[in-house]
Amino acid sequence: MVKTVILISLVFLFVASQELCDMNLGGGICLFGGETVIMPLSTADNLVGHWTFDDNSCLDYSGSSNHCKSPGPAAPSRSSKGHSLNILEGQYIEIPHSSSFESKIFTMTFWLYMHKDPSDTGLRWCPIIHKGTDDEANLVYQRAPGIYYDREDKFLKVYVSTDEMIQFPQGEYAVSNARIPYYKWHHIAVVRTQSRIRLYVNGIIDAVNSTNGWTETNKNPFYVGNTPWTSENCPISMYLDDLKYYDNRELMEEEIEAEAFGALGAIEPYFIRLSCINCAYEEAVEACPDTHHICTSIELHSSGYAVARAMGWTDWNSHIWSTASTNTESDSSGLGICCLNLE
Ligand SMILES: *[C@@H]1O[C@H](CO)[C@@H](O)[C@H](O)[C@H]1NC(C)=O
């Protein structure tokens, strides 16, 4: 009996890879007596989906065979190698559900390059990554997760469906402080912990919200770029690169910082933290972690302003606080940026 099951699953595996491949080998390929060896790529723990968009079949390089259903067109890559996924107005790709995507805890990371929106009709909030199906007619929403882009103000909103369905039918969520400027690559990381939604933009922790319920997973596909039900009302275009999904793993802050390096030029993400937007000076000082302080004006000029601009923290109502601020009357408010203590 066991033998039959193994045989059947082997046959199934063989058939599945047969569709994709003309030739199947059980091991690596050695050329010139082993001088050159072709082997599978290395994989991080619990990485069960890695779509590089460098091939023309939207393959998953995590080793979990979560290949896309149909590939999308190619666009310029974030690095000098390969390509990214070109999402044209309203288009999307689909990644079928598999048992790889069933944990209540997960991390997703990707690089995003938004195009300027040519139209001002349609929905304000549009999905760029969505796992699950929204049934608007019956008000049933599946978002594990749903990463939405604000076409008006360029914020991101991350939804996670939880078992608190009565209170949060569309899922619980976190909204970014960052606005995603056009025509620039941004690194985005969404970490769903047991009780929180954490959103990193360019390696900097940008928004965290606690949730009341547990993640409600679903067995529907991942949609990337748009969804079948929003495609018409969301004419957004973007490039997407290096999409990764970690099942049952919260990526650590250091790992996200390392992966996002380059998004802020040569500045390391750890150097800067957002304190608060439109808050009083004292509040801004309080909100910096122990490892950081409100940036001095030299620090602001050498990197703080550049990061604030790259992060789209641009909508503060008066000024950026610095330790040298002379204007600290309690009734004024501004943007607080924390810089790393260098000792
Ligand atoms: C956090 O979630 C609550 C609902 O639980 C919501 O009212 C609030 O706006 C959210 N905050 C952010 C910053 O997303």
From TrEMBL:
Residues making up the signal peptide according to the UniProt record: 1-17
Record flagged with keyword Signal: yes
Annotated DUF8019 domain residues: 270-341
Domain of life: Eukaryota
Keywords annotated in UniProt: Signal
SUPFAM superfamilies, A to Z: Concanavalin A-like lectins/glucanases (SSF49899)
InterPro entries referenced in this protein's UniProt entry, alphabetically: ConA-like_dom_sf (IPR013320), DUF8019 (IPR058332)
UniProt keyword Signal, yes or no: yes
Any Pfam family: Laminin_G_3
The name this protein goes by in its record: DUF8019 domain-containing protein
